[in-house]
Specification:
alpha/beta; Rossmann fold; 3 domains; five-stranded mixed β-sheet; 19 helices; elongated
Length: 409
């Protein structure tokens, strides 16, 4: 099956430069690339669409390039932003690159030149500005650039000149990868459509070569929330920032209307199986959510951690105190504090079950706070050492958010 048809079937395609040409291009082995933002040492769930797209390409025999924007990050992409991004040093970017490479290796095979990870700082930082303007800058029309959605939105709030160069630099990346690696397809989020087309056009102008563009939709949940965002913040791929259990919980709490779409994009399950899962209704839809959570967690954290997270979630969901809940996040508190007793609203806030103590009081007043499956009715009820069962106190907010409290000396 042509990987382009896989993309279409699974919901990866928003815009494409020329559908017939792209499908024909992908009928043979090609080199493609997509970029990743190195502004953190960990990627987050929002980065999974490009990662999964590269993984599908690789599984269909194509060579993939994961390009870290080390050079462009020193400028800042204005796409989708209303203000100038924080500028980073080369040292910060290089440090972040190490963590990102480890995460990409869970999804991509970097052996035998099947996947390549590059940093555009390696060629952008050494550019001669005058030569760049003469050779590359003259190929761009300012009028066309200003008409691009990326820049048009920012003109209302103010566009910094350094950001105005971003399209040129990303286009030059595509040209460089075309020249050095034979890369003929750039993929990215739909907010990058103008930049990707500009790069393909630059290749045609400078090299008289053929290059194509493909973008995927910018995903939101059915309720309009941005992918990978929760009350706690971003859902990270790094297990040290987002535990495998919390990662599993993010996926199992998927809204009903999003389950089939997310199974198609964020797992490698056959579409026939996904269609069958999509037919589940009512309480049965939890089986589909569990499958999504397990498969997504397995890809990122491995099958063992996914199994532990599933076992913990099942134990808590079923109320089985004998189940394996060892993967549930744990918060340590000084034994002396617990011996004295801690007001419930303070304990819930300190353990991260509410953003603030005011939010914790509100949670309790609305009947959404539980200790060892007993609802807390008084916001300042003292929770003490005698509440521990088998060495822990289990806090729950609502139906799905849990944390275990244990003591430290």
């Amino acid at each position: 099956m042509n990987v382009y048809d896989v993309f279409k079937e699974r919901g990866f395609v928003e815009q494409v430069s020329d559908e017939a040409k792209v499908r024909d291009l992908l009928s043979e082995r090609v080199t493609c690339y997509t970029g990743f933002d190195p502004t953190s040492e960990s990627l987050h769930v929002g980065s999974l669409v490009p990662i999964m797209a590269l993984a599908h390409m690789q599984r269909h025999g194509h060579r993939v390039i994961a390009l870290l924007g080390g050079g462009t990050a020193m400028i800042g992409d204005p796409s989708g932003k209303c203000e100038l991004r924080k500028l980073m040093t080369r040292e910060e970017i290089d440090e972040n690159a190490g963590g990102i490479k480890i995460q990409l290796e869970r999804f991509l095979d970097f052996s035998d030149d099947r996947a390549i990870m590059l940093n555009n700082a390696d060629w952008l930082l050494g550019l001669n500005y005058i030569e760049f303007l003469r050779d590359i800058g003259r190929q761009f029309s300012v009028n066309r650039m200003l008409a691009a959605e990326t820049y048009r939105q920012r003109l209302e709030t103010g566009l910094n000149f350094i950001e105005f160069n971003y399209m040129l630099l990303q286009s030059y990346d595509y040209l460089h990868l075309y020249r050095e690696y034979g890369c003929s397809l750039q993929m990215g989020g739909n907010d990058q459509w103008g930049n990707i087309l500009a790069g393909a056009d630059l290749i045609r102008r400078v090299e008289q070569g053929e290059a194509e563009a493909l973008t995927w939709p910018l995903l939101e949940t059915s309720s309009g929330a941005k992918m990978g965002k929760t009350e706690k913040g971003a859902v990270w791929l790094d297990g040290g920032r987002t535990s495998p259990y919390d990662y599993y919980q993010y996926w199992i709490n998927t809204e009903d209307d999003d389950v089939m779409r997310f199974l198609s994009i964020f797992t490698f399950l056959p579409m026939e199986e996904i269609v069958e899962l999509s037919r589940l209704e009512g309480s049965e839809i939890r089986k589909a959510k569990e499958m999504l959570a397990f498969e997504a967690t397995k890809l990122n954290h491995g099958e063992e951690e996914a199994g532990k997270a599933r076992a913990a979630a099942r134990a808590l969901f079923s109320g089985d105190s004998g189940g394996d809940d060892s993967a549930v996040p744990t918060y340590e508190i000084e034994k002396a504090r617990l011996e004295d007793g801690i007001p419930a609203f303070i304990l819930f806030a300190d353990a991260g079950m509410a953003k603030t103590r005011s939010d914790a009081r509100r949670l309790i007043s609305q009947g959404g706070a539980y200790i060892n499956d007993r609802r807390v009715d008084v916001f300042d009820e003292k929770i003490a050492i005698d509440s521990m069962v088998d060495g822990y106190i289990l806090l729950r907010a609502g139906k799905k958010k849990h944390i275990r409290i244990k003591t430290s000396e």
